[in-house]
Amino acid sequence: MNIVIIGLGTIGETVLKSLSGEGHTITIIDGNENKVESLIEKYDIFGVVGNGACMDIQREAGVENADLAIVLTNSDELNVFACLVAKRLGVQNTIARVRNPDYQQQIIDMKDTLGLSMIVNPEMETAQEIFNLISLPSIEQVERFAKGKALLVEIYLEKGCSLIGESLITMSKKVNTRVLICAVQRGDQVVIPSGNFVFEEGDCVHFTSDASSLDDFLREVNIVSSPLKRIMIIGGGRIGFYLAEMLSSKKYEIKLMASNLEEAEELAETLPKVTVIHGNGTQHDLLIEEGIEAMDAFVALTKIDEENMIASMFANKMKVKKTISQIKNDSLYDMLSELDIDNNVSPKNIVANKIISYVRALANKRGSNILTLYRLVNNRVEALEFLAKKEEKFFNKPLRTIKTKDNCLVACIIRDGKVIIPDGNSSIQLGDNVIVVTTHKSFDDLNDILD
Fold it and tell me: Is 348 within the bounds of a domain?
């Protein structure tokens, strides 16, 4: 597809990096000449320097020939206006970043009027991700396929989990609930395991499950955590606001710390069900005074990654059941597991993945078979949902007879609304939704799984 990206900040660069290897023709627009030149040299793309909301600049970038305009500058107003300009020039699909809570509902209400195909809010998307982690305390992460009927779940094997010491073969004989283990991260290694793979304490395990069977499986393998009720959040920015708002509506007990007095006063007024504290949430004495040791979950959302890491380590030492950290710098991820910081979120990656999923779905209408895409384990593994919309020679054959690429697994089949966790005797049929998990990048069709 022909794609124009306007605004090459942190999220814009992350989206560009993800899209650049997928065969699209990409043009970028940004006011920073050095940045544009640097990205042109780094990626095989076109670039224009200037104001992305200006019609002449968009014409220079060839926006009228684009299939999609993605506008991710730091200004909500400019983003919406740039999308209107792109629509006027003939672009059918536009994505705008809109972050201000004051605009959120009216932008949603006016989405069709403004001609916006999609609105992304990094802070709200991140808050929703954290909310999911808190509301499902036994799991590290969950992604949804087939309108939520099939789940891709990440769990951490702690002492007491009955999977530890079992192989995939012995697990299948002892566990009644059917799931399929897709990938395991052990230290800095990621594997798509075979039948003889043996689980160890500390493994991070990804598996597919029927949504209705998830709780049964977690109980069988003794990974069931008591509900989280008391939540402490440090960092009173937009993510903290959205998260506290979501949690307080579900009767959680929330303490939110904001270091800025004016911000704390505004939050206290806006969030009457939340206990708002003015203070530096990274200070040892304040955390002790506010009862961190009595908390069920601790969420570190300051602007500084290292502060979030240290505060989460302290929360772990205080035996808080679940800690979650905002980490923006990708280079820090490799050390997180070594520091026992297992739940972390990255706004730029969350939004980039959502945009990539939209692009893949849009490409589906133009010939690609991909419906949904998620990136796992710091973007080292892809989980893709394909639509089997045209007959292939390997359809209706047992999966055990099909030669697939190494590190590639058919993880789930959805047929007529029913979730099938496949084994070697299962087959793919015309019309199925098929979830594939792989370490290979840029799969575009079900045929790509074949060796």
Answer: no
